[in-house]
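Run log, item B.
One chain of 265 residues. Sequence copied directly from the ordering sheet:
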Amino acid sequence: FQHYYITNNLRMSSIGSGYDLSAGQFSPDGRVFQVEYAIKAVENSGSVIALRGKDGVVFGVEKIITSKLYEEGSNRRVHSIDGHIGAAVAGLLSDARAVVNRARDEAANYRDTYQVPIPLKALTERLGKYMHYFTVYGSLRPFGVSILLGTWDETNGPKLMEIDPSGTARGFYGCAVGKGKQNAKTEIEKLDLSNMTCKELVKEVAKVIYSVHDEVKDKHFELELSWIGKETRGTHQLVPQDIYNEAKTYAEEALNDSDDDDTDM
């Protein structure tokens, strides 16, 4: 019995003191370990950035490539929820697909019911409730994904929201999630977002993605860029190839200049 007691205590202490066995259980200090683990899954993902300018929202994704055999453009992390709402996801890809599909269902149901496109605020409320539902029942587990949602229209201008694995939704002018979250936020805070156009933001998003990329741990990555705004007439779409190439070149040159400065010092 004594051996069982000691062994059991060691096992419990190594897995969050036994309070992480269910998403519906609080620890004595008020933590829900399963939600924290889901957030950790997001933090281990490639960096995802969204910036809200004066005429739209730009999404940027650092999609880590673990094999040279992968087909370029597969397993995208930027998605269209409806024609007027774009999304970028960080975390477990399979969970992300489930969340994106749910968001599309909500948008379609709203359009069928009210004959108008779903407002971003209504979508984030519905999707946030859905994701929160998975954090309160022991038979379910939280989604290991954060989703960034953006829209633009002539009346209300650009809007940017984030929903984390707990189901909490927040509005942002600039948002970053994933591995390079902290460094990306530092770079984003230097920008005058409210006075920048989408074309300017595309370059800055690419620059931030390249600056936070860890070449030691993750040698290869694919840059994904999409936008929605006045330039696209309120429709979410991938950034045109010529603008994409220009932004990528700008980011690579900025990174090389930064490396040269560090070498000189």
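Observations after the first pass:
- The helical segments are 2-14, 33-43, 93-114, 120-133, 181-188, 198-212, 241-264.
- The two ends are 64 Å apart (CA to CA).
Flagged for discussion on Thursday.
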